[in-house]
Each structure stands twice: as structure tokens, then as C-alpha cells.
Amino acid sequence: MKNIILSITVMFVFLSAIGFSAELSSCGTIIENSILISDISASGTCFEIGTSNVVLDCQGYTISGDDTGIGIRFTGGMGGPKNVTVKNCIIEDFLTGVSVGYTQGYHRFENITVNSSSDDGFNFYRIGRINLTNVVSNYNGGNGFYLEQSGDNNFTQFEANYNGGDGIHIFSTVLGNGNHLQTSSNNFFKEGILNSNTGSGIYSDAYTPNNVFEEIVVNQNGEDGIYLFSCQNCDFKEIIANNNEDGICFARNLIDSNLTNVTVNLNSDNGLAIEPDHYKSSSYGNLLINITAESNDDGFHLEGFSKSNVTFSNVKNNTNGILLKSIGTQETSIDNIFKNNTLEENGHGIYFDYFIDNNLVYHNDFVSNTIQSYDGSDNEWDNGSEGNYWSDYEGVDDGSDGRTVGDGIGDTEIPHNLDNYPLMNMVGFEEEAFQIKSIDSCQLITESVVLTENITGLDRTCFIIKTDNVTFDCQGHSISGTGRTRSARGFHINRAKGITIKNCEISGFANGINLFYGEHIQLENIIANENTVGVNVNRGKGNHIENSTMNKNKYGIYLYKSSDNTVKGVETKSNTRYGLYVKRSNNNLFEYVTSELNGRYDLFGYKNKGNSVVDCDIDKSKER
How much is the pTM? Predict the structure, then answer.
């Protein structure tokens, strides 16, 4: 491996993966790559790290304290270390297990277990771009993980159970006038288990935008499974939140966010709750898909909730299946669509309180609810041609009043004085009804899709995505251009957020994938070979390119005026000019990248700041 070590004043910093490691059998200050060779007992703080680009490998040994000090502490404040890796450690019985504050970030924690701290297991303060993988923080007196004003972090395969506070506590500074001075945003949490904490599984007491929660389990916590004060542009996928107070609660508002495949059962209060404290704190622009809410007080408790969709959800055996309220006497719960939901054996199937207006309810199944529905305001319970199925409907489809006989729409009686076009049969939605759409040709993408065939011989852009929060899975299929059109792109993402593109082979275009003002785009398992540019990121922020190959292009990856992106596990080889070309782009992370055999430079940078290259195999590099 050919790594170049440059001074910290230069943009790129390369960590050497091969080199001498000091052997440690006692506590002290880490100034070079080090390995533990035995268990260690400490009084007070054990290890302090103030040097950049070092690795501490505990090799599975245990660092034990006396309930004082910090197991591993990063020092140096704002000028503190950067690119530090800590791995394979067991840390027990300190005041705090791991503490990182004010440093420059880009740290990695791998295979770490912190148990029985008298305060927090992990404490991160004003720090960003930390990667945690396979990290456990259990039985601590405070929180499992505490993040204050910390953003752009990645948590993968983590646990925080049986802590005296919250599993994860996210804090942002708020000024006296209610404005947010610093936020904990752009964090990514995946494959987490946060059970049986005294507080909440995940708790945030201030504004936390642009966070992603995926494959998270939060069960049997003393307070809420997930409690977030305010979340905008957040994404929740595959969440299980059972046996808490509220399963998931947004205390002020939820804006432009998605909840998909979420289970909230057996919570003592509400399954999903939005409970703002002021009429100006309305929630809007949300998409709630495939929510299972059973045996709660309210399945959905929604206040100040507008211009959102609730669909493909199963709501059963709650006091209220869906309760929609306004805030005070203001009409703040309006223009929602409730469609393709099953409401079964609840006290009220749907309860619309006063000052609720212009909500549309159709294609739902109301089955054996004590009171099927209540509307205290003026809402629509059909779309003008079809309404809902009501298990207690006693009318017939006989063509009365000039209607059509046998069309499946009831022609006599109006159930509950609401639905003018009641359905004679249950809508039902089988699992296949919720399947992602399949496509086999180029088109504008407005929803999540899977590609079912190869597409070849293109002289134009194939896929354009302008809609937020969609997933495009090529399933290994290829998209091929002719290479004759300078403006043709395999994918063109234009000012969109939260897009995932995966498992694609793209060749013969000016840009295999073009991200224009894209934010939080995830590119996974992409092969973009033999294009002019494999992946072009133009004015992008917070995007991830992982486990992908960009070979035999003119440019493998081109970043222009783009910040806070991560390129990880990527190969860029045999490109005629540059493997990685980075221009006027700041605070990006390149990790485990192999770039070699490229025409001019494997890595070329121009007028950049704060970027990092960690554990990369790069032959030729230059920064101007």
C-alpha cells in the first residue's frame, strides 16, 4: 500500500495502515499507533489521545476503572486530533467510557463495548464526522450515547440497553428566544437496538434536522421509544417501537419527513404521537406508509398535522385508531389524505376533532370498531366516486337514484352520514399492493422503483429524479449509453434529498450518475465504468458513495463545490485522467478507497479545505 503522509495544513491526510505499534500494558497518553497487550486497571482517566492519525487497538482486552475519570479521552479542544481510530476495546466502570469534544472529527470507533459507567457511556460534544460500527453501551448510569451539537455522524450496528438515562440523547443548544444556536443534524443511525433504558430509547430535546433512522428497535423503555422535539427532512425506515410510553413522539413538529415500515404496538400511551405546544408549530409534508399500530391508547395521535399522507397502515385495538386534532381553535390539521388503511376493533376507527377541515378519507377498511368514525368538522369521506368499506354498512348496490348496478358501490343509505360512495367489499391490501413499482424503461422517477431489465443503446439521459426520499434498485441490471451525446446521463438527480440508488451498472454516458445540488444521496454497489465521468457531484452535501467501482472513465469521481460527503470502499482505476478529482470542496471523507493506474493523478485536489483520506491505497496525488 502506497500512502503519503502530508502535513495537517494540506488538505488530504493519509493514514499508514502498516507501521510500528507501541505495546501498552498501562494507562498513558497515546502519541502513536498502539496496541494493548493485557487487561488494564485504572484510577481516574486511563488513556488520553491528542495526536492525529493514530490507531489504538485494544485487541479485545479490558480497561477497568474505579467509577472516576474517563476510559478514553480525546484532548486538545478545537485544535485537537483528527482521524483517530479506536477498536476492539472493552471499557468498564469509569465515570464516562469515551469522551470526545471539540476535536476536528473523522474518528472511528469499531468493536467497542462500554459498560457500567457511572455517567454516560459515550459523550460527544461539538464534534462531527464520527463513524461507529459494532459499538455497545449498556448498563451505564447516564445515557448510552450523548451527542451535543454533533452532526454528520454514522452509527451502524450499535446497542444501548439498560442505561439509567436514554439510549441515545441528542442535544442542541437553544437561545432564550427559541432560536437554535447549534443543531445535531445529518446523523445516520442504522441497525440499532435500544431497549429497557430508564429514559427513552432515542431522545432529542431540540431541533434535529436531516437525520436518518433505519432498522432501529426501541422496546420496553421507561419513557418513549423515540422522542424527538422537532425533525425536518428526517427519514425513518424499519422501526420497531413497542412497550414504551409513546412508541414514537414528536413533541413540537414533523416536517417533510417519511416514516416507512414502522411498528408501534403495546405502548401505554400512543403508538405514533405528534403533540405540538403552539399553533405555529404545525407538521406538514409528511408521508406515513405501512405503519402497524396495535393495542395502544391512540394508534395515531396527530395534532397540528397537515398536507400529509397516511397510507397502507394497519391500526387495530386502540382507544382511537387515528385521532386528528387541531391546536386550540386554529385550523391546523387540514389537507391530509388517509387512504388504503385498515382500522379494526378500535374504540373509534377515526376521530376528527373540531377545527379539522378538508381532509380526504377513502379506500379504507373500517372493521368492527366500536364507533367506526366521528367527524366534528367538515371533511371528505369519499373522492367523489369511491369511498370506504364499512363492516356495519347495510345498504345495497341496486342502482338506486340512477346509479350503476353491481359496480361495488353502495347505492342506498349513507354510512354514518359521511360516505356517499361506500364500498361493498373490503379494500384490503395484500403485501403485493405495497410492493415497489417495477420499471423497464427510461423515465422521470417520482416514487421508489426496481429495474427489471437491462436498458441499452441510449443517446439521452435515462432517469431523472427530482422527488425526495425515493429508492432506485437496479437489481444488478445495466444501463448503457452509446457515448455519442455529451449531455446524456444514466441518472440525473436534480435538487433532491434522501435518494438511494443501488445495484446498478452504468456505462457509455457523459455522467454515469450526476448529482446536482443533491443532499443525503446514497449510492451503493454502483459500477460506473467507461463514461466521461463515473459519478459527478456538483454542489452536493452529505452524500455517500459506498462499495462501488468507477473504472475506465475520463474521471472516476468528480466533486465540485461539494461538502460533507463520504466516499467509502470505492475503487477508481484506469481512468484516462483522474481517479478522484476534487475541486473547491470541503470537509469530505475518503475512506478505504483504492485509486491507481489513472492517467494523470489518482487523487487531484484544487482549493479545498478540511478533507480527509483514511486508509486509502493511492499512488499519485497532488493538491493545489
Answer: 0.77
